[in-house]
Amino acid sequence: FEHYEVSNYAREGYRAQHNSSYWRGAKYLGIGPGAHSFDGESRHWSAQSVAEYVAGREYESERLDERDHLNEYVMTALRCVEGIDLDYLEHRFGAGQRERVERLAKGWLCSGDLRREGGWLRIPVERFMISDAVIESLFEA
For the stretch 3-33, what's the b/e string if a residue is b when 16 or more beta carbons lie within 10 angstroms of its beta carbon? Predict the structure, then answer.
């Protein structure tokens, strides 16, 4: 099996498309009690109980700001074997963010806990167990 994401394995060519869409930041629609949705800017979730859902209780939501989007990209990208696309990071969040991430990554690169391959930063599969520490260190506070 291929270890393609921190908590997922699959036979070659059989990665879970459903979960992979979350790691790529794709939009999704959830329908029903307790369902979650993401429209690219905000997260929405409906009432947990069937009774409240059927009664039409308003959904709750959370709008993501630019820092949230950046941190979620760093987190979800580094959970996957492909890692952070530095060109995308610069295009989406600016050259300053790319420089900041590359600067903060230096120690992890020296220790081998992070690898740079072309225009990508990734956590080696054998280091996935410490991914939370690597990811948190690259967050923008």
Answer: ebbbebeeeeeebeeebbeebeeeeeeeeeb
- Where do the domains of the chain lie? 23-64, 65-141
The secondary structure of residue 80, as a DSSP letter, is: B
Model pTM?
Answer: 0.88
CA distance 83 to 73: 10
Instruction: List pLDDT tens digits, range 71-94.
Output: 999 999 999 999 999 999 999 999
Which tokens belong to 49? Answer: 């109980």
Count Cβ atoms below 10 Å from residue 105 Cβ, excluding itself: 20
Check if the beta carbon of residue 6 is closer than 8 Å to that of residue 128: yes
Contact 28, 38 (CB under 8 A): yes
The token duo for 115 is: 């690898």
Contact (CB, 8 A) for 98 and 116: no
Q: Which CATH number fits domain 65-141: 3.40.50.2300, 3.40.630.10, 1.10.10.920, 3.40.50.720?
A: 1.10.10.920
